[in-house]
Prior knowledge:
A: Rossmann fold, 14 strands, B: Rossmann fold, 11 helices
Amino acid sequence: MLKHDSKLNPKIFDKNVELGSVRQGFGLGIVRAGEIDKNVVALCADLTESLQLDKFKAKFPNRFIEVGVAEQNLVTIASGMARAGKIPFIGSYAVFSPGRNWEQIRTTVCYNNLPVKIIGSHAGVTVGPDGGSHQALEDIALMRVLPRMVVISPCDALEAYKATIAAAKTADPTYIRLARDKTPIISTESTPFDIGKAQVVYESDITSNIHNTRKSSLEMNGPKHKFDVGIIATGPSVYRALMVARKLDRELKRVKVLNVSTIKPLDEHAVLSIAHDSRSLVTVEDHQISGGLGSVIAEFLSHNFPTHIEYIGIRDQFGQSGTPEELVEHYRIGENDIYDAAHRVMLRK
Amino acid sequence: MKLYIIYMSLTQDKIHLLEKKATAIRRSVVDMLIEAKSGHLAGALGMADIFTYLYFYGLKHDPKNPKWKYRDRLVLSNGHICPVLYASMAHSGYFPVAELKTLRKFDSRLQGHPHRDFLPMLETSSGPLGSGLSQTIGMALADRIDSGKSSGREFYCLMSDGELDEGNSWEAIMLAAREKIQNLTVIIDRNNIQIDGYTEEIMPLNPLVDKWRSFNWHVQEINGHDFREIDRAVTEARSVFGRPSVIIAHTIPSKGIPSFEKKFEWHGKPPMTAAEIKTARNVE
């Protein structure tokens, strides 16, 4: 069942679950951040409407800077503004920023330790018809390797809204990764969000009568762990993880799902906890497994609590045109793939 | 007429003092590189007169209060010539001259390329080329948001000619013109060399004056070793209305060591052999 403390959208499992744009969540978030702090400024590289920065531009015209199609300039102008006391948010597609301007981010933002907030939209194969050139599948890897950079991957529009406001309040270089498409609303306004905190979003009810049946079946079959499998997901993939969790739950598998919305710094306590409770994990992301969430979890657990892991993500490939649904299926990051991976990893225990 | 008065205020006596100071700074640069056994010689020596002018005459700054809110901002974009930046800062009182010999050593504040973590009084860290101008523009834009168009602060960005190969430089040049940042002055170290050879052979920049002009900048061309010309150009740049300014300063790489001058081979190395060291120590 949905984790009660997380106060998630009660209609998440409905067929007609409400959809929302994470970009719009960002667009509203930066307006709010701008109201809270007059030092918040925004810069964009010829994608103002696409990044939903038009509202900020309309409300704070003298705090918005259009740099044209020039992502290297985008980040370095922002770095100079941050050095002079501003909190700049820079918006473009993730392939271009942080893709094209990585060295400038490294030197002028991270090396200088300045609070520039990099917003990378159009992340993942779910970008769809634009094709592989516009689907950022490497951005988490690029950003998490940089010292001082905080990396956030919101699961839905509301989390993007909260992440934007939270990022504006820190002095850290920060990357926020946004999907292109409208995605299911997983959280509510009451769902807690803190940078650096992962959230348990689903836990099988181990106190119910069904649970007792499960307990006995498991005691016969293997070691006693609180859960049969844990799923760790990030970004809008959390929705697919939740769908699979419910399906597994109905098969009397005990399952726990963790939303890692902050990739870096990793909520080590939460990851240790899900690993300890389940001893078998599936990671789920719309990003290269290499360098992405899969790598993050494997690097951490191999040292601290070696655990069986199956990885769902992009396997050293580029994307292509198609509908998001077709691409999710083609690249094997859909619900069936997560479901199969969960079964595989449970057998490895 | 105002220009004339300021021009006159740089008296012959003052110029004489600046020349002596520039020689002292060049000596420090040579000593630092010999001590460090690595580093970039030619550009650092070539820019010593302009650094001397700025730190001892042109710049509004307070070495004892590096965070002074109303200081002019000086960004060194081509961070590899930092020995001349460090020497100018030390000689003008930011830190002890004795510290210069720690250049490029472990735990030194004087990193091989400038790093604010180690020396927070720097306006920015630099080294990778082509991004200093846009950072300076960002500082000026932030200043304009906070204080309006006449904040009284001047923003200087010192760049090399070689780094004009970088696309990022031209992105910045276009934006500064659109924003009409009139309190921005770029000084280009036009020494015609880069690591692999002469700029006009590696990647021709000429006609450089026309390039900047066509990007809607106010352009001046000077002898970068003549204090009167430097002063006149910087003063004029400050008075330009509605446009950013660039001063293309023709300089002699390795200036002060006649047998090293104008040779691109000295771009990225220090004097190493006993004979080279002896020659270099006589820098003027």
